[in-house]
Amino acid sequence: MISISLCMIVKNEEAVIGRCLDSVRRIADEINIVDTGSVDQTKDIAARYTDRIFDFEWIDDFAAARNFSFQQATADYILWLDADDVFTEKDQELFLELKRTLDPHIDAVSMNYHLAFDEEGNVTSSLRRYRLVKRERGFKWIGAVHEYLEVYGNLQHSDAAVSHMPLSHDAHRNLRIYENMASSGKDFSPRDLFYYANELCDHGKIEKAIEYYLRYLKTKQGWVEDNIRACNKLADCYHSLGLKEKELSWVLHTLVYGPPRAETCCRLGFSFLEKNDVQSAVYWYEKAIENRGSESLAFQNRACATWLPHLQLAVCYDKLGQHQLAYQHNESALQYRPHDSRMLANKTYFEEILQQQAGSGGEHHGNQ
Question: What positions does the domain Glycosyltransferase 2-like occupy (predicted)?
Fold first, then answer.
């Protein structure tokens, strides 16, 4: 069985680091904590779990800190987490099974990273990241902000997932780092351009975000999935500016980079539904269900591949007077969100209509 070193970089994480380390204590054979300047009880809490606590002077460079943390590892494989990440009990068991059975020739293992959840506990957004890597390969982190781990060789996907559960964070930190990079004249990689645009968009600097998304796409050097996200983000930006034609043009531009993803299909479905072109909307929402995605490393808007197209198809088929189909799609949506008030109201509405139709012996086309 392989041995595992957990490597983390932390700063002022007293509210969450115990929760994280509790969730990994059965998994990790060694815990390495690299502190970048905590002034709270973070290091004291970490000391309850490990004596391998190291200091690293923060230099506005996440890759440098993470590479330093990896240098402290001594086990066969390195697992990395942030302090506000956790393994649920289910995922702890999946990880332990992975640990027992992993072929030591595997160089890196990816896991789903669940980023957000709805009130039902369903994952609403996620992506895959390489979480477990063979130490002897010496894989390096790249990028001062939104850093990534460059891996290659024998790669494997795992069913285990990491859940991101922040309580709070410095919402302006990444934007500050990028702005400092820009003011000091540092060159931006295509990845930097994309993530800087994301930070600008998240902070409501829409026009500047548009500028940097366009600069990113103009490089023609980005990852295809980031290209698609950039197009969707541009659509969001133009939507916020009330420019619907430009919004739609950027949704359509995602098709330059490959078959339509579920999110693109839902966006196109909504654009047709707004125009009351219901049949075209049905086409695209059905495509969203077909194009659910796979084990890609790409960011996934889970709603667009689960309950949302079913809910919208319920609306569409209701408008078309096909209430049995509408009811069925609403039931499918309820499987994902069984307490959603909209879907429960729809359920009552459709059951009343279908009962009336059964009583009258024919399809009832009410006022649409």
Answer: 5-127
Radius of gyration of the chain (CA): 24
CATH 3.90.550.10 domain locations along the chain: 4-164
Distance CA 281, CA 300 (A): 21
| Both tokens assigned to 154 | 């024998």
Task: Give the three-class secondary structure for 31.
Answer: strand
Contact assessment for residue 163 and residue 88, using Cβ atoms and an 8 Å cutoff: yes
Q: Which residues contact 242 (CB under 8 A, 6 or more apart)?
A: none
Q: Which residue has the tokens 């815990």?
A: 31
Report, as an integer, the average pLDDT of 271-284: 96
pTM for the structure as a whole: 0.76
Which CATH code is given to the segment(s) 173-258? 1.25.40.10
List the end-to-end C-alpha distance of the chain, in Å, as a whole number: 63
Provide CB contacts within 8 A for 333, sequence distance 6+: 307, 308, 310, 311, 314, 340, 343
Mean pLDDT value across residues 80-89: 97
CATH 1.25.40.10 residue ranges of the chain are 173-258
Question: So what CATH class is 276-368?
Answer: mainly alpha
User: 59: phi > 0 → left, psi -120 to 50 → alpha, else beta; which?
Assistant: alpha
CA angle 109, 221, 268 (to 5 degrees): 85
Whose tokens are 């402290």? That residue is 72
Average pLDDT over residues 95-114: 97
In this structure, the chain runs to a length of 368
131: helix, strand or coil:
strand
Residue 126 buriedness (CB in 10 A; 0-12 / 13-18 / 19+): buried
The sign of the CA dihedral 286, 288, 291, 295 is: negative
